[in-house]
Specification:
This protein is an alpha+beta fold. 20% of the residues lie in helices and 36% in strands. The structure holds adenosine-5'-triphosphate (ATP) and magnesium ion.
């Protein structure tokens, strides 16, 4: 396990790897972690490795020279705060962010990114500091106490593989606890901060934090000599539920299409999972889903046939795995009761869920949707938005345009476009404050 402190202050941004000893944070030359703070900031803060808690502990000694805020809460003098990944410490003039990285999974002492599954059962669990030679074990970070020695077990059973939770603190499969479950293509298994994905014949370590990001810099889209998108820059982190809001004709669809590459911008740059739009091959690996406003699904097929048909076209998997995947997705999207119904006979909300199911088959990291709730009544609209929000539990990033403001509180982040310009980016509380203030001033 390694710990890192990212320091952002007036002198810029830098990262320091944390040692296992005691490190003081302050403005004096003798401090191990030197910061620039507003005014004098004697070394009253320190970080110490705590093996029992398997993390670094922030200690605020008494009395504090200035307020120290940890995750938006003021630290009390004398308080000891065990840090978790991405905790933010604020002192006047500096932001410090803690980042924790777990060691690579090891098999027989060698780092691996992918674990083939075959006829032998495989145990995933906390490794031994001395290492093990057992080829049927995947050893995770030996210092991470949240992981049990035997945490999860993968075993073949007939044509399938089954996953059993053997841990003390629980394991998540696709965001929920489980006991024993058949593995289906694309399943995501979370153990502490490791995330593995089942690929049909292997378990692959994935890094969703990097693959689910969306960033744009100075996007401009011209239609003739009209600027329909004007210098838009934004950053979306993995697993966020993002709403693009704005009045009709203000550029929501234009922005969405520029971000996902359907209609690339005239100028500016977009990166999905850090990959530029032009790099189609690498984008395919990251997985980008797009659900247009008008659903394109074969209307004569049943729901089950339509989804199975797309799965066969998109994925090279044996038939039994296709069937398991289709039934898993159909259930997840609440379509099981309609599986044998013709697509042509579905309601608007059901049809939309079929389109989403088809996009989810290939397990994208980012899903874009244009006006998914248009034409739905309020109850169905609420159900759909809640469903989209729940998809982000597995670190899928969901970006959708909408002009319904009532459900905007469900979004983690709201982007408002007006006349092609991004006039607001923030969470729903900020949006409420921002727009209330504006109305108040008018
Ligand atoms: N290909 C195009 N050629 C010319 N003008 C276009 C083109 N595409 C979009 N526009 C114009 O750009 C503006 C933004 O369009 P866009 O479709 O992005 O709006 P929107 O916010 O999605 O609207 P709605 O809520 O009605 O879907 C509109 O004025 C539209 O007429
Ligand atoms: Mg639109």
């Amino acid at each position: 396990m390694t710990g890192l402190l990212r320091i952002v202050d007036a002198s810029g941004e830098r990262e320091t790897e944390l040692s296992r000893g005691r490190m003081t944070i302050g403005t004096s030359r003798s401090d191990s972690l030197l910061i620039t703070a507003d005014g004098d900031f004697p070394s009253l803060l320190s970080l110490t490795w705590d093996a029992r808690r398997a993390t670094w502990v922030l200690y605020c000694s008494l009395p504090l020279a200035a307020p120290v805020i940890v995750n938006r809460r003021a630290a009390a003098p004398g308080e000891q705060i065990p840090l978790t990944d991405l905790d933010v410490i604020e002192v006047p003039g500096s932001f410090l962010q803690f980042q924790r990285t777990l060691a690579s999974p090891l098999r027989s002492g060698k780092p691996i990114e992918q674990i083939p599954v075959d006829n032998e059962p495989v145990v995933i669990g906390r490794g031994d500091p001395q290492g093990t030679a057992d080829a049927n074990r995947i050893d995770l970070d030996s210092e991470e106490i949240a992981i049990s020695r035997v945490h999860a077990l993968i075993e073949p059973d007939g044509q399938d593989y089954f996953l059993t939770d053997r841990s003390r603190l629980g394991t998540e499969l696709n965001g929920v606890a489980f006991t024993r479950e058949r593995l289906v293509f694309g399943d995501r298994l979370r153990i502490s901060s490791y995330i593995f994905e089942f690929t049909g014949d292997a378990i692959r370590l994935i890094h969703p934090e990097s693959s689910g990001t969306v960033s744009a810099e100075n996007l401009t889209v011209m239609a003739g000599d009209r600027r329909i998108l004007d210098q838009v820059s934004l950053n979306i982190v993995a697993g966020e539920f993002v709403g693009v809001l704005g009045g009709s004709g203000h550029g929501k669809t234009t922005l969405l299409n520029a971000l996902c590459g359907i209609n690339p911008p005239t100028s500016g740059e977009v990166r999905l999972g850090g990959v530029p739009l032009a790099d189609r091959a690498r984008l395919r690996e990251i997985g980008i889903g797009y659900v247009p406003q008008d659903d394109i699904v074969h209307r004569e097929l049943t729901v089950n046939e339509a989804i199975t048909f797309s799965a066969k076209l998109r994925l090279r998997l044996p038939r039994h795995q296709i069937d398991a995947l289709v039934s898993r997705i159909t259930r997840r999207l609440g379509l099981a009761p309609h599986a044998e119904q013709r697509v042509a006979d579905l309601s608007g909300g059901q049809l939309k869920r079929v389109s989403i199911a088809i996009e989810l088959l290939a397990k994208p990291s980012i899903l874009f949707l244009d006006e998914p709730s248009s034409g739905l009544d309020p109850a169905n609209e609420e159900a759909l938005m809640t469903l989209l929000q729940s998809l982000t539990l597995t670190k899928l990033t969901v970006v959708c345009t909408t002009h319904v403001l009532q459900k905007a509180y469900l979004f983690d982040r709201i982007l408002v476009v007006q006349s092609g310009k991004l006039i607001f980016a923030g969470d729903s509380d900020d949006a409420r404050r921002h727009f209330l203030l504006q109305t108040g001033a008018e």
